């Protein structure tokens, strides 16, 4: 099981610790470093900065939002950074949800998310293969554009720049059963959001055999500390925000996933508290058991014991969100 460092997206501003953590992870033998985006910092610029200050560690987006760019624009970002980094790019994509797509990007959320995702990946992979001009008779991403409001003058094109790798990995963030099943068919890997090392089979209904060389790369918050309850607070804060604020109460994929993991009533309660502006209460309402199940928090011995459970399943890459170099070092030592 390879280790990756997940830096996420910025808060109020860039974190001065991110670059140092990325370089520390590379020194410790971590395989990859990952950035993200929501409605603030973008994923590719920060990743390019890290690329310029590292030499070996692979560079991933977990995730770049599909609504933020056309699929050809995303493919351009990926192939450019792949060249500049010497073939270290991993493209992780996510569809996001209606609240973000319509509220931030000002675009309609697709009525058929599976179709929209499939078309997006199709176009990206056509660009990377560069076998011919990009062409797709699609519902959401037609190439050339064929809508009634177009000029009709669109011409199929292929990238001027030759991609460094036609097989640049494309991973998808997927939470629902149908989305996960499609991910296994069309992508090179999967980025699960919440992963239970003991209940993944029942939660995600994965087949017994995954595609050859398929990447399974869940994120996990990790922290070496003596006080487990205190160490879980950042996990609960993240969950409170994602469950309560990252999506509408009537359509929140993160809350739905928490429900499938056995905490449906708790997820709805968190949403109610968050919507009422009682955010601190929403965080505290996150069950410790749920936060603990999907994280690696506590003394070194406890983390070692729980890390062994993560190794038993299909996880190929563990993307670690860690606040300090000590935690990164501990996981590197325990994973050898």
Summarize the structure.
The protein is of the alpha/beta class and about 325 residues long. The protein has helices at about 15-25, 45-50, 70-85, 100-105, 115-130, 175-185, 200-205, 230-245, 255-275, 280-285, 290-295, 300-310, 325-335, and strands spanning about 1-10, 30-35, 60, 65, 90-95, 170, 190, 215, 220-225, 295-300, 315-320. Strands 1, 2, 3, 4, 5, 6, 7, 8, 9, 10 and 11 form an 11-stranded parallel β-sheet that branches.
How would you describe this structure to a colleague?
- The chain is α/β, with parallel strands linked by helices.
- It is built from 13 helices and eleven strands.
- Strands 1, 2, 3, 4, 5, 6, 7, 8, 9, 10 and 11 form an eleven-stranded parallel beta sheet that branches.
- Helix 7 links the parallel strand 7 and strand 8 (215-216).
- The protein starts with a strand and ends with a helix.
């Amino acid at each position: 099981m390879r280790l990756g460092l997940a830096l996420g997206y910025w808060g109020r501003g860039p974190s001065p610790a991110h670059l140092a953590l990325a370089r520390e992870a590379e020194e410790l033998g971590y395989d990859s470093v990952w950035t993200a985006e929501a409605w603030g910092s973008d994923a590719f610029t920060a990743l390019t900065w890290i690329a310029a200050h590292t030499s070996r560690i692979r560079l991933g987006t977990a995730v770049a939002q599909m609504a933020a760019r056309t699929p050809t624009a995303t493919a351009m970002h990926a192939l450019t950074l792949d060249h500049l980094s010497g073939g270290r790019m991993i493209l992780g994509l996510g569809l996001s949800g209606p609240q973000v797509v319509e509220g931030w990007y000002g675009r309609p959320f697709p009525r058929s998310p599976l179709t929209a995702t499939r078309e997006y990946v199709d176009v990206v992979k056509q660009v990377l293969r560069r076998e011919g001009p990009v062409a797709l008779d699609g519902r959401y991403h037609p190439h050339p554009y064929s809508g009634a409001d177009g000029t009709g003058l669109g011409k199929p094109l292929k990238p001027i720049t030759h991609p460094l790798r036609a097989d640049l990995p494309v991973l998808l963030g997927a939470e629902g059963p149908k989305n996960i099943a499609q991910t296994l068919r069309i992508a090179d890997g999967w980025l699960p959001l919440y992963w239970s090392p003991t209940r993944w089979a029942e939660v995600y209904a994965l087949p017994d055999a995954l595609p050859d060389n398929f990447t399974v790369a869940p994120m996990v918050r990790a922290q070496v500390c003596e006080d487990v309850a205190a160490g879980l607070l950042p996990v609960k804060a993240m969950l409170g925000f994602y469950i309560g604020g990252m999506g509408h109460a009537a359509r929140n994929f993160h809350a739905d996933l928490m429900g499938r993991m056995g905490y449906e009533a708790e997820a709805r309660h968190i949403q109610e508290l968050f919507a009422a502006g009682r955010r601190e209460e929403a965080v505290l309402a996150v069950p410790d058991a749920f936060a603990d199940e999907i994280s690696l928090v506590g003394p070194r011995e406890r983390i070692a014991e729980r890390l062994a459970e993560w190794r038993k399943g299909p996880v190929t890459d563990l993307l670690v969100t860690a606040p300090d170099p000590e935690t990164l070092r501990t996981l590197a030592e325990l994973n050898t």
